[in-house]
Amino acid sequence: MKTSWCHAMGAAILLLVPGGCVVSPPPQTAGAREEKREKVVIERSRAAGAERISAEIHIGAGELHVAGGAKEFLEAEFIYNVPSLKPQVRFEETGFRRRLQITQGAGQPIGGIVNRWDIRLGGDLPLDLVIRCGAGENRLDLREAPVRSLELDLGVGEATVDLRRAWTHDVDAKIKGGIGRAVVLVPAEGVEARASGGIGEINVTGMRKEDGRWVSEGRARSGARLRLEVTGGIGQIEIRAG
């Protein structure tokens, strides 16, 4: 049975009181208001001429969807109902480097919140992408994202990470498990994976075990490799090739 991130958070913060009773947090968050919808666009031209681009996305609690295929460098929409959840978007241009940061506000309210991030990335230069998830449902469809490296910290809840594409350059991806279930989808060719650690399970399908690592059956036509390193947490991680 699927457990929502709200339930996961609620279970984690139950309070014990004298007499052995268990009291759940109030169903509504103080300060909650009507939903606000904000859109942020960073034009592709602002990333032009860069030699290196990095992006960091950090959400504390909510639903995160990251994908590629954007016409501009960044096309994002944020929906939230608590002022402290308002995301901060910063784009730094220093010489030949560009750095994008998207972070959640300082507040960490619980119960009755709405916080949904829909982020699409574009551009011509592969970027170094760091994503730090909190408590929630995370859908990361990176098949069209211009990624050179990926560092992903999973939080509490469920996550799907889709890396199935014919990569034309080597990609290093590090995924650190959290509490919950994560599914990592990879191409049928050109993949080398290492998986270890954690209290939960790490299951691999569609690849063969060889010298302490998992490798895909075929070699990518471009010769590019996806090097995947997965560290387990508390829960289940599935790596599926195909």
Task: Report on the architecture of this protein.
The chain is mostly beta strands and 242 residues long. The chain is built from 1 helix and 21 strands. The strands form 3 sheets. It has a 10-stranded mixed β-sheet with strand order 7-8-4-10-12-14-20-16-19-18, with no helix packed on it. β7 (88-94) and β8 form a beta hairpin. Residues 1-30 have low confidence and may be disordered.
Question: Short summary of the structure?
Answer:
With 242 residues, the chain is mostly beta strands.
What general outline do the C-alpha atoms trace? Answer: globular
- Main pleated-sheet profile: 10 strands, mixed
Strand order of the largest sheet: 7-8-4-10-12-14-20-16-19-18
Distance between the termini: 26 Å
Poorly predicted runs of 5 or more residues: 1-30
Broad structural category: mainly beta
Beta-strand content:
over 45%
Share of residues in helices: under 10%
Number of strands: 21
Rg calc: 19 Å
Topology of this structure?
Blueprint: H1 5-12, E1 15-17, E2 21-23, E3 36-42, E4 52-58, E5 63-67, E6 74-80, E7 88-94, E8 97-103, E9 115-121, E10 127-132, E11 135-141, E12 147-153, E13 156-162, E14 171-176, E15 179-186, E16 191-196, E17 201-205, E18 207-210, E19 213-216, E20 226-231, E21 234-241
Parallel strand pairs: 4-8, 4-10, 5-9, 5-11, 10-12, 11-13, 12-14, 13-15, 14-20, 15-21, 16-20, 17-21
Antiparallel strand pairs: 1-2, 3-6, 6-9, 7-8, 16-19, 18-19
